[in-house]
Amino acid sequence: MKTKKNSIYLLLSLAVIGILTALDQWTKYLAVAHLKGQPDILLIPGVLQLQYLENHGAAFGILQNQQWLFTALTLIFLAFALFALYRIPKEKPFMITFWVLTVLTAGALGNFIDRLVQKYVVDFVYFSLINFPIFNVADIYCTLSVAVFFILILFVYKEEQLTCLYHSIIPEKKKSQE
């Protein structure tokens, strides 16, 4: 029964990942169609604007043109995420972790698609009030997910819940009988 429940939740998670990734890709398509080669669009003058950027690196433009590294790391993360999504206990205290990992996976996949298809990530949201680097919807998924993970780890989960979560994803090796 547990395997069937895990499979159903994994399929539901994959559907949500698909929807969120499609939303990210659609917003990037709109950015290319309406912002590329055009003046910035001020949403809130001095605070928020839409500005087209082709990012060949990672966050904050670091590691420019290191596509092989991004590809390898993303493939490793996606494999781990799918495994973890299947293994995370589908009980009340851990469901938020399940859904946060789902959103994080959608963000990683959205930017991965850009890197595979175009060799760069389309960024278009610029928070000019604090001169924050230009970002996109997938970046929002990743940033919010990681923030929620930290909050869960630091303030919500008790040590035994973290241990349970860890061991459900990475089981202990059984000791051989001597």
3D structure, described in words:
The chain has 178 residues and is mostly helical. The chain has 5 helices and 3 strands. It has one domain (2-169). Strands 1-2-3 form a 3-stranded antiparallel β-sheet. It starts with a helix and ends in a 9-residue tail after the last helix. The mean pLDDT is 91.
What keywords describe this structure?
178 residues, mainly alpha, three-stranded antiparallel beta sheet, 3 strands
Question: What is the topology?
Answer:
Layout: H1 2-35, E1 41-44, E2 48-55, H2 67-87, H3 92-118, E3 121-127, H4 137-156, H5 159-169
Antiparallel strand pairs: 1-2, 2-3
Rg value:
19 Å
Q: What is the helix tally?
A: 5
SSE ordering? HEEHHEHH
* Fraction of residues in H or I helices: 55-70%
Number of strands: 3
**What's the overall average pLDDT, rounded?**
91
Oligomer: single chain
Which overall shape is indicated by the principal axes computed on the Cα atoms?
A: elongated
Number of domains: 1
Uncertain segments are none
Strand order of the largest sheet: 1-2-3
**What gap, in angstroms, lies between the N and C termini?**
34 Å
Q: Kindly name the structural category.
A: mainly alpha
**Largest beta sheet, briefly?**
3 strands, antiparallel
Percentage beta strand: 5-15%
Summarize the structure.
With 178 residues, the chain is mainly α. It contains 5 helices and 3 strands, in the order H-E-E-H-H-E-H-H. The model has no long low-confidence stretch (mean pLDDT 91).
